[in-house]
Amino acid sequence: MTERLSSDELKRIEWFDGNYKEVKENIKKACAEAGRSEDEIIVLAATKTVPVSVINHAIDEGISFIGENRVQEFLSKKDELSQNVHRHFIGHLQTNKVKDIVGEVEMIHSVHSLKLAQEIDKQCAKLGKKMDILLEVNIGDEESKSGFKACEVGDAVQKIAELPNVSVKGLMAIPPICEQSEKISQYFAEMRKLFIDIEAKKLDNVNILYLSMGMSGDYSEAIKHGANIIRLGTCLFGARDYTKK
Ligand SMILES: *Cc1c(COP(=O)(O)O)cnc(C)c1O
Fold first, then answer.
1. pLDDT at 44
2. In angstroms, what is the span from residue 214 Cα to ligand 1's centroid?
3. I need a labelling partner for 62 at 20 to 30 A (CA). Which of 23, 81, 204, 218 fits?
4. What pLDDT score was predicted for residue 245?
């Protein structure tokens, strides 16, 4: 790399190397305990607020999926990002921003309403593109979060499956913050059940493959409950407040 890096960037790059090693070991352990293969697990780096230099370093070290949360931030980073990475959108997406992002990412994890899916379909039609999407489930039924309620997911998948330019590939969730690991396990177990139920419907235009759940604090638990995309930010890059780890 020829550009000069700031001390913050250098610090983050150094953190990343140690952190990623640890994360890989934890994944290995969780998979062993769950009787799963590590090859099933996609580690998606949640890169909000992380400078492009650090993201590109992570990609050089083996990260092959990244997810951004904000359209504006993503657009400002995308041209400098390494080409060797799958780009996903994982944040809350507003209908009026869909047109700016559909050409830029391979998958949108956070489809929280039929209206949003319809807009993605409409914008993708203009591009002649079919977008892979995951449906976001508000598994804790929290007021502050968007997403389908668990009881609405089956119906939503069926309706969205009729849209020609989107392809439902699975489910995503951000469970409530839990003090106890038994409680978070319960949410992950409910997600797995929904995932299996939807898969079993064998709908046309729907190939259910991905269960995107598990973040820095709970990814081992998520793996035990069938997650195959884990979305990791803090445990790879350090705290988003740059002054603390
Ligand atoms: C930030 C973010 C993550 C990663 O969170 P960490 O706790 O930092 O690992 C995962 N998923 C989504 C949707 C996020 O916005």
1. 98
2. 9
3. 218
4. 40
**What element of type H or E holds 47?**
none
Query: Hey, which of 54, 215, 236 would you mutate to test ligand 1's pocket, going by the most ligand atoms within 8 Å of its Cβ?
Result: 215
Query: Which of 101, 103, 135 minimizes the C-alpha distance to 203?
Result: 135
Residue nearest to atom 10 of ligand 1 (CA): 231
The whole-number pLDDT of residue 86 equals 98
Exposed (0-12), middle (13-18) or buried (19+): which is 173, by Cβ within 10 Å? buried
Q: Which residues contact 242 (CB under 8 A, 6 or more apart)?
A: 8
For the chain, list residues with pLDDT below 50: 243-245
Q: What is the largest CA-CA distance in the chain?
A: 53
What is the token pair recorded at 99? 């047109």
pTM of this structure: 0.95
Confidence at residue 244, expressed as pLDDT on a 0 to 100 scale: 43
Alpha helices in 35-152 (DSSP H): 52-60, 71-77, 98-101, 114-127
Question: Which tokens go with 234?
Answer: 């803090």
Ligand 1: atom nearest CA of 232 is 9
| pLDDT of amino acid 4 | 85
Q: Which atom of ligand 1 is nearest to the CA of 69?
A: 15
Beta strand pairing status for 131-137 and 86-89? Answer: unpaired
CA dihedral 176, 157, 92, 84 (to 10 degrees): 110
Pocket flag, ligand 1, residue 233 (CB < 6 Å): yes
CA pair distance 133, 106, nearest whole angstrom: 9
pLDDT of residue 2: 52
Q: Which residue has the tokens 């929904």?
A: 194
